[in-house]
Write a structure and sequence with these properties.
This protein is of the alpha/beta class. It is built from six helices and five strands. This is Rhodanese domain-containing protein.
């Protein structure tokens, strides 16, 4: 299944900053809720833990999805971007989405660790 993943599906920090700023993606963090509480969240992201992702995207009605996650159920052409702590679970989420027929799914390869590292670097640059 990994042969269906292409390099344009792998996003970096600059991509995430640009795309979230443009509000042109649905950013889905697939970490567990307690991880988000411990570390923080990426701006504009919604949390759908990896073990709930397939059911959420495949089996929930539009109303159930909206109620549970606070956004409309994405259609198969929605620009989904998955993130996690370091990129492993978001790659699994990407593969799940592709398997379910989502055509514009991507993942943030570095995850929250990369976000935190780069955000810290950009904040240091702004102070100087």
């Amino acid at each position: 299944m990994t042969e269906s993943v292409t390099s344009d599906m792998l996003l970096n920090y600059e991509d995430i900053v640009r795309l979230t700023g443009e509000k042109s993606i649905i950013l889905i963090d697939v970490r567990q809720p307690h991880e988000l509480q411990e570390t923080g969240v990426l701006p504009t992201s919604i949390n759908i833990p990896l073990n709930n992702l397939k059911t959420a995207l495949e089996s929930l009605s539009s109303e159930e999805f909206q109620k549970k996650y606070g956004i409309p159920l994405p259609d198969k052409n929605a620009p989904l971007v998955f993130t996690c702590r370091s990129g492993n679970r978001s790659m699994k989420a990407l593969l799940t989405a592709l398997e379910l027929g989502f055509k514009d799914a991507k993942h943030y390869a570095g995850g929250y660790l990369d976000w935190e590292k780069n955000k810290g670097l950009s904040e240091k640059k702004e102070k100087h």
